[in-house]
Amino acid sequence: MLKSHRYLILLLILFFIITFFLIKKFSEKNDYVQNVVAEEIDINQNKIEDKQELSVDFIYEDFFIIKDGQTFGNLIKGYNISDTEQYKISQLLNSKIDLTRINIGTEIRITYTRKVDLINIQKISIIDKKNNEVQVVKDNGIYTVESSSLLSFTKNILKEVAINDSLYKSAINAGIPPNIIMQFVNLYGFDVDFQREIRNGNKIKVYYEVFLDSKKNIKKADNIKFASLSLSNNTYELYKFTTTDDNKTEYFDAEGKSAVKALMKTPINGASLSSGYGMRKHPILGYNRMHQGVDFAAPKGTPIMAAGTGFIEKIGMNGGAGNFIKIKHINGYKTAYGHMSKFASGLKKGSKVVQGQTIGFVGSTGLSTGPHLHYEVIFNNKKINPMKMKLPSGRKLKGKVLQDFINFSNELNIEIGLN
Hints:
Radius of gyration: 32 Å
Low-confidence stretches: 24-57
Order of helices and strands: HEHHEEEEEHHEEEEEEEEEEEEEEEEH
Number of helices: 6
Distance between the termini: 129 Å
Structural class: alpha+beta
Largest sheet: 10 strands, antiparallel
Shape: globular
Oligomer: single chain
Mean pLDDT: 78
Strand content: 35-45%
């Protein structure tokens, strides 16, 4: 009996010892689990913070004048938005205007932001020949529609801006509408390299027309009548003038020379020259060879413009050049554009394009280390340096037409207050 009690006591002692160690072990494991969970929460929080990267919205405004055979539906399809969004926009516009009966000459402006390939429509404005406007506006993700007449009042506005940081930002901060800024840039795109020649402290002047509603709210800005760009050593002034002999409207400098040239130097806005014309070590192939064009670095999706009016000679994949377009212009000139992410809708071999028309978007297709435009100019089948080409200007006014222009520009200078 005594012996059995001893065994029982030993078993109880052993039980307590084992229980003690088990509880201690479990407690340590629980602390470890809690610590791991706490660490995991901190890591996840850090990851969330790391994802909050800076990004930039690029704001664009495309302007169309409806031609024979064009429809609103065809235009909106080129923006790669969902069918549901297209339907919402069309339904709202149809509540104010019959989209199936838009007349030739109707103006359509589409304002949007682009992040890489993601397009976000901000506003669509349709203006008929009587200056009646219907517009759809997106606010906090919701589209609304409104209509008004723009014929109540018109007036001219002069803006003078000192460039600080960038021309676009400075002009926006001064209250100049985006479409006026783009018109201004296109006017000087023949003579000025906006990526390399613009500096802080340079100044611009722009005199343009605005349309106001009955409450004197500005509803539309258009029609630059005078523009001036002052760089370090030169000032470029341009006047919009309708010639008295053939009734054609163009922009002329103070001496009566047309601003229009055969080709633009830089067929892309907001880009930087990343590689010039000449010998270089190819970034992918690794050996030296002639770089027979120039490269403009820009975010993927940035619009690319036709440098001049002409016909598309080639469009499609072209080996190392990726998505590629070649345009044939007058007087022996051709231009080529490579590495596009995609082409503008509706283009094919033989299509006519006009100077400044969007033909595609920046990408990195083919042999490319990052998003950029490879741009070439070919003259009489020989590739030349686009940044050094000297193109003949358009018309030079003479005789009575020149005197009419001088009288007109003097009157406009007085109106603006330049004299």
